[in-house]
Amino acid sequence: MFDWNKSCSYDDAQKRRFHATARSRLKKLAAELHLPTGSYDIRSNRAGIAVSGEVTLHHDGAYIQVGQFALTSHHGILIRSCKGRRDYTGGRNHFLDLDKLDDIPALAAAVHAITGVGQVGQSEPSVRAA
Q: N or C: which end of the chain has fewer CB within 10 A?
């Protein structure tokens, strides 16, 4: 299990693992939500040495960003609605704990509840985080 709360600050190896794992989980989230190919981008901003940077899934109707925004609060997943992939401000911000990346079906349900994006509860097998 990945330690989402281990700081990436001044630890390049941890930052590399953080970004790779977050990208992988966001790909699984897109699959769990049944987002059509081409309706979203996943991008990574490593930022400076003292911070985690962020990994973003930007869909036509949802903006989901993962980062170590405040390690003391553990709130590292930002979810908000948006109007297209040029909308970087979107709707109201909602924050979830980073450990939600270990439960993709629950994260997908939260994204759907907040943004209305995607389909949840389908009969297809669900993608679980390793």
A: N
